[in-house]
């Protein structure tokens, strides 16, 4: 297994609107209500990564209000983070056939995806890529694809940095953003502003992230919106 710590970023985008502070969130399929977040690319600064994620997922450019903090997570024995792109194969060999390429988002596990580790064998790992309906409790698996990948494409360590962001331009109250995914896949984000009081409900684990930095999101002055 790789000892690399995969870097992630999360953006809490806030504004002042009609005397109250609001948080920008989005709904995406069955993934629940979220805030923009993503994986840092190789050689990319954390600040550049979070602003890129903001632009990709909202369609608007933003600027940093403040760095909020960081956490390092050990995924434990059951989960792994994909460090570099890897094909799921039917056997633990480099020339083994690829598993159901049409089922795994462009024929490869992308850097930054979380997979479930089933077992390991001679430098290879059998993992499952699973998709969940996060709008039910507990989350329900709606798709699962398993296969072998080289062990050095996986890590158990993730480090996530959190930022408070303000957009440069005013936005509608609600809008859609179409973000390109791997190859032919495209994601649609349904974005809207929510009052920060009471605390918005986000999908796990984002709810815990919001709770951790909740009071800090009120401390920094932000621009006014009519």
UniProtKB/TrEMBL annotation:
Keywords carried by this UniProt record: Hydrolase
Molecular function terms, GO-annotated: hydrolase activity
Hydrolase recorded as keyword: yes
InterPro entries the record matches: Nudix_hydrolase, NUDIX_hydrolase-like_dom_sf, NUDIX_hydrolase_CS, NUDIX_hydrolase_dom
Coiled-coil segments: none
Domain of life: Bacteria
Keyword presence, DNA repair: no
Domain Nudix hydrolase stretches: 4-133
Protein family according to the UniProt entry: Belongs to the Nudix hydrolase family.
UniProt-recorded name of the protein: NUDIX hydrolase
């Amino acid at each position: 297994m790789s000892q690399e710590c995969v870097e992630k970023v999360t953006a809490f985008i806030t504004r002042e609107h009609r005397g109250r502070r609001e948080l920008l969130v989005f709904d995406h399929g069955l993934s629940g209500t979220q805030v923009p977040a993503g994986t840092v690319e190789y050689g990319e600064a954390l600040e550049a990564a979070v602003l890129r994620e903001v632009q990709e997922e909202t369609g608007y450019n933003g600027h940093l209000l403040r760095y909020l903090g960081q956490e390092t997570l050990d995924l434990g024995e059951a989960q792994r983070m994909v460090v570099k792109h890897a094909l799921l194969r039917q056997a633990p060999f480099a020339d083994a056939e690829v598993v159901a390429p049409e089922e795994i988002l462009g024929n490869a596990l992308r850097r930054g995806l979380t997979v479930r580790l089933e077992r390991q064998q001679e430098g290879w790992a059998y993992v499952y890529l699973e998709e969940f309906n996060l709008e039910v409790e507990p989350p329900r698996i709606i798709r699962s694809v398993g296969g072998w990948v080289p062990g050095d494409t996986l890590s158990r360590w993730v480090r996530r940095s959190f930022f408070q962001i303000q957009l440069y331009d005013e936005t509608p109250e609600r809008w859609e953003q179409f973000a390109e995914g791997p190859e032919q896949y495209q994601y649609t984000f349904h974005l809207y502003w929510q009052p920060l009081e009471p605390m918005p409900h986000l999908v796990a684990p984002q709810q815990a992230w919001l709770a951790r930095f909740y009071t800090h999101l009120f401390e920094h002055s932000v621009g006014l919106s009519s």
